């Protein structure tokens, strides 16, 4: 969908693997300084550059900057686990950071430590997209069948330099008193947020699954597998958000191209003149879109290629206002199902793809060109069975 990828970063190997499971066509990308990233794809074609930053805000900031410089992403997601700061935030819940507090900034005075935090706020558009995904619940499709859906919360996250595992220590009491609206606490988001902020306010979202309560029970909750459960929830939501951010970026790019094309419209009349025994081939001004001359060859695009072309036409139709956003979103979901089913390369997968495409054709009945294209894809798939 986009030539530029979304960068997804994690701090722990367990978090990295939770994201990696959602990607296909993985390939290694070596940075000249030795950092290793992997580049993969989501079912809708969105490219993802995945990296591991390790623990702490300082290495997170350095490697985030490295990833941004290397890949020039259209968005940046930081995904992993965190500790809850309040009893009503349950294990397994997902917190999307509305703010990131670098809470270790301060000044030490005779009457105590006075906070001087740095704060980064989520960009408006990613926040709106994330809230919409949570409302419609589509992100839950990426969860394993045996995984209970978690509650998603929006609120501040506190990022420092220590693992907090006490509810009564002086440090814990100070954090809760000074940052009493923070829902969760962790150790890397401030570094990631700072790097994103310094790169022309690159859209950045921190998504954390709650794996412990930061109250002295971390060893117990880790021992019964809450880290894996929490990051599975966070990764599912993050990948859904990555796909939607890619769609929004594509819509914007298509709209920009459409505006430019309208300013450079084709001449209404092109005259072809032949004299004597001359023959006219093709004479034209500026041409937009696909042009065929003569009889089409017998070679037909493979179903996957036709599906990609259909996705492109759908995006253009949405940008032009021929398809409303709600229909576009529903249609994209059916295309995702069809693409994923086709990738199985089995007759069963192809049949699943045709079912999804029939639903898609129903959604697009009012747009004759798109409905016809869907029929062509169905016919192409049927020809491979």
From TrEMBL:
Describe the location of the Nucleoside phosphorylase domain by residue ranges. 5-241
**Single Gene Ontology BP term?**
L-methionine salvage from S-adenosylmethionine
Q: Which InterPro entries match?
A: Nucleoside_phosphorylase_d, Nucleoside_phosphorylase_sf
Q: EC number(s)? A: 3.6.1.55
Record keywords:
Hydrolase
Pfam families from the xrefs? Answer: PNP_UDP_1
Q: Top EC class per UniProt? A: hydrolase
Question: Molecular function (GO) terms listed?
Answer: 8-oxo-7,8-dihydrodeoxyguanosine triphosphate pyrophosphatase activity; adenosylhomocysteine nucleosidase activity; methylthioadenosine nucleosidase activity
Q: Which GO terms describe its cellular component?
A: cytosol
What SUPFAM superfamilies does the record point to?
Purine and uridine phosphorylases
Q: What is the protein name given in its UniProt record?
A: 8-oxo-dGTP diphosphatase
The organism of origin for this protein: Sphaerisporangium krabiense
């Amino acid at each position: 969908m986009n030539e530029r990828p979304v960068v997804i970063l994690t701090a722990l190997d367990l978090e990295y693997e939770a994201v990696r499971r959602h990607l296909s066509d993985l390939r290694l990308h070596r940075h000249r300084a030795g950092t290793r990233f992997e580049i993969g794809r989501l079912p809708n074609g969105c490219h993802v550059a995945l990296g591991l930053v390790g623990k702490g805000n300082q290495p997170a900031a350095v490697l985030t900057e490295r990833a941004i410089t290397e890949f020039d992403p259209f968005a940046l997601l930081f995904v992993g686990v965190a500790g809850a700061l309040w009893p009503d935030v349950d294990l397994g819940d997902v917190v999307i950071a509305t703010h990131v507090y670098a809470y270790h900034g301060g000044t030490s005075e005779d009457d105590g430590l006075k906070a001087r935090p740095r704060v980064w706020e989520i960009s408006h558009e990613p926040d709106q997209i994330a809230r919409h995904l949570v409302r419609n619940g589509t992100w839950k499709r990426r969860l394993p069948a045996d995984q209970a859906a978690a509650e998603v919360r929006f609120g501040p996250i506190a990022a420092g330099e220590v693992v907090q595992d006490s509810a009564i220590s002086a440090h814990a009491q100070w954090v809760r008193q000074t940052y009493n609206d923070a829902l969760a606490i962790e150790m890397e988001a401030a570094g990631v947020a700072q790097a994103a902020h310094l790169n022309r306010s690159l859209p950045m979202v921190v998504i954390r699954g709650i794996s412990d309560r930061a109250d002295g029970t971390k060893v117990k909750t880790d021992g019964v597998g809450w880290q894996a459960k929490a990051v599975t929830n966070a990764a599912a939501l993050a990948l859904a958000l990555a796909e939607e951010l890619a769609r929004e970026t594509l819509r914007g790019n298509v709209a920009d191209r459409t505006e430019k094309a309208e300013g450079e419209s084709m001449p209404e009349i092109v005259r072809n003149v032949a004299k004597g025994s001359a023959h006219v081939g093709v004479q034209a001004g500026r041409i937009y879109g696909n042009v065929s001359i003569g009889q089409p060859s017998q070679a037909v695009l493979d179903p996957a290629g036709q599906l990609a072309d259909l996705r492109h036409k759908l995006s253009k139709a949405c940008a032009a206002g021929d398809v409303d956003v709600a229909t576009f979103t529903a249609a994209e979901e059916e295309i995702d199902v069809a693409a994923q089913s086709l990738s199985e390369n089995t007759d069963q997968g192809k049949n699943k793809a045709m079912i999804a495409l029939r639903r898609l054709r129903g959604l697009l009945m009012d747009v004759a060109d798109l409905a016809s294209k869907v029929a062509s894809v169905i016919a192409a798939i049927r020809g491979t069975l």
